[in-house]
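Page 47, continued from p. 46.
Same chain as before, 191 aa.
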Amino acid sequence: MSEHADVIFDRGLDAFGVVVEQLEPADWDRPSPCEGWTALDVLGHLTSSLRMGISLLRGEQPTWPEVDRPADLIDGVPVDCWRSTSALAREALDGADLDLVMDTPMGKRTVADRLAFPAIDLYVHAWDIGRAAGLDVEIPAEVIEFSHAFLDPIPADRMRGANGAFGPEVDVADDAAPTDAFIAWTGRDPG
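Result:
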């Protein structure tokens, strides 16, 4: 699985960019599926996650910025901020040592393993921003499979709730579309 984190990450940059490029200026102030966050807050959070990925790709320990709202991290035109951050991420990905082992809160992990979270974030938050703007965003089957392979082994108390990446899973019909089922699994209402 970890050998694919770089591919999922690289494709995720494209997938997220496609959504960002479709938003109108007014869309950035619309509420997102992330409670209390606008689309601009989601972009601010995602660029922080991406900067974490950039640090990892450079073999550096990442840090999270301290701000009141994630939107405060966006300086200037949102799409321009995205383009510059995405370009830095692609530059860092090119030639990165994905096998480098680093210390993490979960023990020693390779850069590729640690890149999985920012990679998954690209798709989930593309869906969030798309939803805020009224766009339909599909998450590819290989990304859903990758996400489950990486995230399912993590204990629920570390993945869900106030300190986790996701809220409680939302119930959906057994025949829900794969994107809807995955989004519900992340704690978002796909309806």
